[in-house]
Amino acid sequence: MLLAIDVGNTNTVLGLFDGAELEDSWRIKTDARMTGDEMALTFSGLLASSPPVTAIALCSTVPAVLREMRGMLARYYGHLPTVIVEPGTKTGVPVLTDNPKEVGADRIVNTLAAHHLFGGPSIVVDFGTSTNFDVVSARGEFLGGSLAPGIEISVDALAARAAQLRKVELVRPRSVIGKNTVECLQSGVLYGFAGQVDGLVRRIVAEIGPVTAVVATGGLAPIVVAESETITHHNPDLTLVGLRLVYERNA
Fold it and tell me: What is the distance between the alpha carbons of residues 242 and 247, in angstroms, rounded to a whole number?
C-alpha cells in the first residue's frame, strides 16, 4: 500500500493506494509548529485500521513541515521506500519556466496527473490557499500559469478589514442580487471567483488554443465548480494521483 502525502499551506491530504486504486484518504490541517513525533502519532491514528503501508510518496509546499516530515519518515518509516518530490526527482514533467526550481512541487505533480488522466493541452485549477492555474502542454510540459489569492484568505481579509462584514457560509444565495449582507457576500464570493476562473481560463485558451480539459482540484473546488462555465472536470484527488505516478517512476 502506497501512502501519498500532499502537504499544503492550509491542509495536508493523505491517500492510501492499492495499486492504482485510491482506497482511502484523509484531510488534516497543516501546522508548521507540529513536531515529527506529533506527525507520527497523527498518522498512526489515521492508519490504524488500514492495511500496512509499504511505500511513501511526499510533496510539500511548506519548508518547515517538510523538514519535520523528513525526520519523522526517517525515524518511524525508515524501512520503507520513500520518494519526496523535489529538484532532482524524476517526474517526467519538463518545466518550461524562467526558474524551474521555484515552481511548487504540487504544481508539477498536478501537471503529471492531469496529462496522465486527460491528455493535453489542459489547465489545472487548484483551489487552495492560493488559486493556481497550471497550464499543461500536449506533451505534458508545465508551461507556467497564474496565481491568485485563494477564496478563504480573501474572505478572511475582507472580514478582518471591514467592520460591518463577517465570514459567511459559502453557499449559493437566492440570487446574484443579494437582499442582505450575508447574501451580498455569498454572491460576491461565489460568482466573483467563478468569473475569475472563467476569465483567466478564456485568456489562457486564447494564447494556447483549445484544451482537452479544465480540471478543478483542491479543498475549495466544490464551492466554485458548479458555477463555472469553463471547468470541465472535478478531481479532488488529482495531487494524490500525481504522487502515485511520481513514485512509480522512481520506485
Answer: 9
